[in-house]
Specification:
Distance between the termini: 107 Å
Radius of gyration: 33 Å
Shape: flat
Largest sheet: 6 strands, antiparallel
Order of helices and strands: HEEEEEEEEEEEEHHHHHHH
Number of strands: 12
Number of helices: 8
Strand content: 15-25%
């Protein structure tokens, strides 16, 4: 009787601990699936990843996928799609996987780090999969067929008479048009002087051009942030006459704190440069919203730092 009571108490404790653990880590989950478990050499299989989590109570760090693993290659990494449903956010990504060696190979499980705001970080991971890569079957019972020789066809200049006549006619037309244009050509009027483009508009166009390249959407995250920070640093040098290209992030932010005109933009510049350092040097994978935020803060910084124009009235105007 006493033993049964002890067993029941132990089972109850285990169930309570398990439920508490699931509540602590139940806000995030990851699933993965494949559209094929066997392919022919050179063909491609699609691998789908889906992650759900609650952004109000945790953050998620997306892993960096290597291009090759266990004789398999990732030939394409799709964009990370975002879907918001209530308080949960779902991220989806598609990978194209191929193999050029025959055999059964393993697609490993990928780990996602979850950082809750009120508890310790933990890791969730996908299931691993087996992928069979087969060679092309060859029927060895049939004989090999020999390669056929080259068959030469006799031709004469009469076979090309219409091509020759058309070429001569085209040459005569080109010569006649060229002579007519040369004789009747008028000198072109001088081109009007283009108005000088303001400094802010010039750098905003550079940001727009960078945005249209869609570098981070093509998994060129590091290149995207290198060009973005170069634009911002060049603007700081030209607009505020402050060296910025050769300084580290901490050195530049220190100058911003002690620069009278740059002080109001310290928070914007700090966000841009910190996210860029994470992507360039720590090999981090910022989320799509962070890419948009960095670009928008760079635009706001440049647009809002236009020089203020003051108008002074003459004594006559004051009267």
């Amino acid at each position: 009787m006493i033993i049964n009571v002890i067993k029941r108490s132990f089972l109850f404790t285990v169930l309570v601990f398990t439920s508490m653990l699931s509540l602590a880590q139940g806000d995030a989950k990851v699933t993965a699936r494949m559209d094929a478990r066997q392919i022919t050499v050179g063909d491609q299989a699609r691998y789908f990843i889906e992650v759900q989590h609650n952004p109000s109570i945790s953050k998620i760090n997306w892993p960096v996928f290597t291009d090759t693993f266990d004789h398999l290659e990732i030939v394409e990494k799709g964009e990370i799609d975002t879907l918001k449903q209530g308080g949960m956010i779902t991220y989806r990504q598609r990978l194209l996987i191929t193999g050029f060696d025959s055999g059964v190979f393993k697609i490993p499980s990928f780990q996602f780090a979850i950082v809750p705001t009120t508890s310790n970080p933990y890791v969730i991971q996908t299931d691993s999969f087996q992928l069979l890569v087969q060679t092309v079957t060859v029927d060895t019972t049939k004989d090999f067929k020999p390669i056929k020789g080259i068959i030469f066809v006799q031709s004469t200049w009469r076979d090309y008479i219409w091509y020759i006549a058309g070429g001569l006619l085209l040459l005569i037309i080109v010569i006649a048009v060229t002579v007519y244009i040369v004789k009747n050509r008028k000198p072109a009027p001088p081109a009007p002087m283009a108005p000088e483009v303001p400094l802010q508009d010039r750098f905003l166009k550079k940001l727009t051009d960078l945005e249209t390249q869609q570098l981070w959407q093509k998994n060129q995250v590091k290149t995207y942030y290198v060009e973005l920070t170069d634009i911002v640093r060049n603007y700081v040098e030209e607009r505020f006459n402050t060296p910025a290209m050769e300084l580290t992030t901490d050195e530049l932010l220190f100058k911003v704190q002690h620069h009278r005109e740059l002080q109001p933009y310290y928070e914007q510049l700090s966000v841009i440069l910190r996210i860029a350092d994470l992507a360039k040097f720590a090999k981090g994978q910022p989320l799509p919203q962070e890419h948009f935020d960095a670009m928008e803060k760079a635009k706001q910084f440049i647009d809002s730092s236009r020089p203020k124009i003051t108008i002074t009235e003459t004594p006559t105007e004051q009267k």
